[in-house]
Amino acid sequence: MVVMEAIHHVTLPVKDLERSIRFYTEVLGLKQIVRPPFSFPGAWFEVGNQQLHLTVVSSPIPNTESRWIDTKARHVAFRVKNITEALTWLKGKGYSEEQTDPAFRLKINLNSVAGFPQIFLLDPDGHLLEINSESSH
């Protein structure tokens, strides 16, 4: 039997690469890293020992029309050291639970049954993202 040691990367399809690069660097604070010279556009980011890859697609991305946060849906989760700092950072960027614009709406559950605090938001292409930490501090 083969034993999987880790997730190396997750790839998300995007429509507007520059818009997505700004989101992942300026909002989530990811570091963009060198990407091999593939024949199609994209960007790579470092996330601890793993990576996030973005690839440009021309066709519509499924399940992005409603732009609402369903925490049971397919998503990517990022771990941070301090959930309170992450929440303060996101609020400083205009994100909140009260936001009427779905692009800036948060779903916050600091006392999740999962056993760790969670923040959910959407990226510019409607991909559901989770930010969590080991504890609520």
TrEMBL record:
<dbReference type="GO" id="GO:0046872">
    <property type="term" value="F:metal ion binding"/>
</dbReference>
<protein>
    <submittedName>
        <fullName>Lactoylglutathione lyase or related enzyme</fullName>
    </submittedName>
</protein>
<dbReference type="InterPro" id="IPR037523">
    <property type="entry name" value="VOC_core"/>
</dbReference>
<dbReference type="GO" id="GO:0004462">
    <property type="term" value="F:lactoylglutathione lyase activity"/>
</dbReference>
<dbReference type="InterPro" id="IPR018146">
    <property type="entry name" value="Glyoxalase_1_CS"/>
</dbReference>
<feature type="domain" description="VOC">
    <location>
        <begin position="6"/>
        <end position="134"/>
    </location>
</feature>
<dbReference type="InterPro" id="IPR029068">
    <property type="entry name" value="Glyas_Bleomycin-R_OHBP_Dase"/>
</dbReference>
<keyword id="KW-0456">Lyase</keyword>
<keyword id="KW-0479">Metal-binding</keyword>
<dbReference type="Pfam" id="PF00903">
    <property type="entry name" value="Glyoxalase"/>
</dbReference>
<dbReference type="InterPro" id="IPR004360">
    <property type="entry name" value="Glyas_Fos-R_dOase_dom"/>
</dbReference>
